[in-house]
Amino acid sequence: MSGRECLRILVVDDNPEAATLIAESLNDLGAEAQACLSGVDALAHALRFRPQILMLDLDMPGMDGFELAQTLRRRDDFRPAKLIAQTAYGDATTRAKTARAGFDLHLTKPLGFARLGEMLDLLSSVLTVKPAQSPAL
Q1: What is the mean pLDDT of the chain?
Q2: Omega of the bond leading into 80 within 30 degrees of 0 (cis)
Q3: In this predicted structure, what is the pLDDT of residue 1?
Q4: Rg (the chain; Cα; Å)
Q5: What is the per-residue pLDDT for 131?
Q6: Among the listed residues 8, 50, 13, 53, the one whose alpha carbon sits nearest the alpha carbon of residue 35
Q7: Is pTM beyond 0.85 here?
Q8: 112 CB-contact burial (10 Å; exposed 0-12 / middle 13-18 / buried 19+)
Q9: What whole-number distance in Å separates Cα of residue 90 and Cα of residue 95?
Q10: For the CA atoms of 29, 86, 127, 114, what is the dihedral angle to 10 degrees?
């Protein structure tokens, strides 16, 4: 079994088609991926799903990807998670802003299947992959 099978990924994008397509592509590549359509929903879902990787759209209404990343980084239980910006903005200013916000990677949309596979290979090699654990009640 490769490390991909143990990776839990939460895709957060306010575009339902994009969120679903990326999550399905990641599942096809061997990861366990789920999609959320807002930053607020992603926070609640992340507490149950316990993703090791969160792919965040930057430009979302309400809680955008930057605010979500900063909120996650303030929580001890999500500090080890890898945060990936997924955005149409690839300019140097936006890339610097994602780095300051605590993102580990910055990917420019559209995200190709091969690029997602390369990302999974890279992250599975650097993450300590553990089976999902249910939070204590």
Answers
A1: 88
A2: no
A3: 41
A4: 14
A5: 45
A6: 13
A7: yes
A8: exposed
A9: 7
A10: 30
- Grade residue 5 by pLDDT with cuts at 50, 70 and 90: low
Furthest CA-CA distance within the chain: 44
Strand partners, 57: 86
Dihedral sign, Cα of residue 17, residue 88, residue 4, residue 11: negative
Residue burial 41-73, b: 16+ Cβ < 10 Å; e: rest = ebbebbeebbbbbbbbbbebeebbbbbbbebbe
Q: What is the pLDDT of residues 44-96, one digit of tens each?
A: 999 999 999 999 999 999 999 999 999 999 999 898 999 999 999 999 999 99
Neighbour order of strands in the sheet with 105-108: 32-36, 8-12, 53-57, 82-87, 105-108
Nearest residue to 87 via CA among 137, 24, 22: 22
